[in-house]
What we know:
Layout: H1 20-54, E1 88-91, E2 106-109, E3 120-124, E4 129-131, H2 153-162, H3 164-171, E5 193-200, E6 203-208, H4 209-213, E7 217-221, E8 225-228, E9 234-235, E10 240-244, E11 263-275, E12 282-291, E13 294-304, E14 309-320, E15 327-333, E16 339-342, E17 355-362
Amino acid sequence: MAIQNINVGGAPNDKTGDTIRDAFVKANSNFQDLNTRTTTAQTTADAAAATANAALPAAEKGAANGVAPLDANQKVPSANLPSYVDDVLEFATLADFPNPGETGKIYVAANDGTPANPSRQYRWGGSVYVEISPSPGSTDAVPAGATNKYFTEPRVIAALANNADDARAALGVYGEGQTIPVYAASNIPQADVGPIYVMGVGTMEWVSTRYVTKTPSMRAYINGTQNIPHSTYTKIEFNAVSFDTHGWYDYSGAKRYTPKLPGLYAVELFITFFLNSGAVGNCDVIATVYKNGAEALWASSTLPAETGRLTAKVSGVIPMNGTTDYLEPWGYFSLPGDITVSVSSGSPSGPARNWFCIHRVAPLWGV
C-alpha cells in the first residue's frame, strides 16, 4: 500500500492538521508497510544471490580448471577434448595430413579404397608419418611357412597317399591284410578279427571274419525218436544238423540257436507228428519258435487224428542282437496219448520230414 502522509496543518496550533491519534495510526501503518517491503526485498535479494552463486563465472568458460564450452550443435568442440577421444583422423590422402602430426593419434588416408590404392593408416613418428602394418585381409595374402603349412586339398591328398597305413589306423579304416588292434576286454581272438560291424548310429562292434565271409545259415533235423506228452508245450529236440555255417546251433546240448552277429533272421520250423494207433477226432497241432524263452513265432492247425500223421509249420523274421538272444523250436499236440515225432523210415528220409531252419537275411539297422 502507499505511504500515508501526516497532515501537520498550516501553522503551529492552527488546528488544521491531523490529530495526534490519527497521526500515529498513519505512522504505524507506514511502519508495517515498510516492514513488509523490506522482507520481500530481502527474500528477492537472497534468491538472486543464490542464483548468482550457482552461476558459472564467464571467466571459467574454456579456461583451465574451468568448464568446456558448447558449439552451435550443442557439442563440445574437439579442441576441448583429450586427444584419445579424437585419436583417429581421416584425410583424403597422405599429402593432406597436418605437418607436424600429433603423437598418440592415428591418421587415415582414405585414398581410392581399391585393392590397387587401399586406405592406409599412419602414426606420427616425430618427424615423418610411419605406416601401420595393415591386416592381410585373408589367408590368400599370407604365404604358408616352411614348417607350418596350410592344409590345402592337394596337401591332404598327398599326405594320405604318402602315409596310407598311418591314416587308415588314425581313422579306424583297415584294408585287406592289415591287423586291427584287439583289446583284451573285447574277448575276440586275434586270428579271428575282421571288419567293424555298424549296429546303428553311434554304435559299432568288432565282428569275426567268419561272420562276414559267409552268411550265417543253419538247418537242423531230428535223428531218432522223441515222444511228446499231449496238451503240453515241449521243446523239439532237433539233435542233428544238415549244415551250420558258424556252429551257433547247440544240437548236442540245449538245442538252441545263439547267433553271434546281430541282424534279421528268417526262421522256419516244420514238425511232423506221427500218432499212435487208435487216435480219433480233431487235433490241434502247433509249431512255435521261442526267443529267449518266450514265443516269437506261432502257428496252429486243426486236423483229423485218423490220418495218423499231422504237420505243423511256422515261419517269420526275428531280430537278434548277436550276443544273448537265442531261438528254440517247440511243439504242441492236443489229443490225449503220446505222440511220436521221429525220423521217417520210409521215403522221403527223416531230414525231409522235420526241420528247423535259420538264415540271416539283413543287418539290424533301424530295428
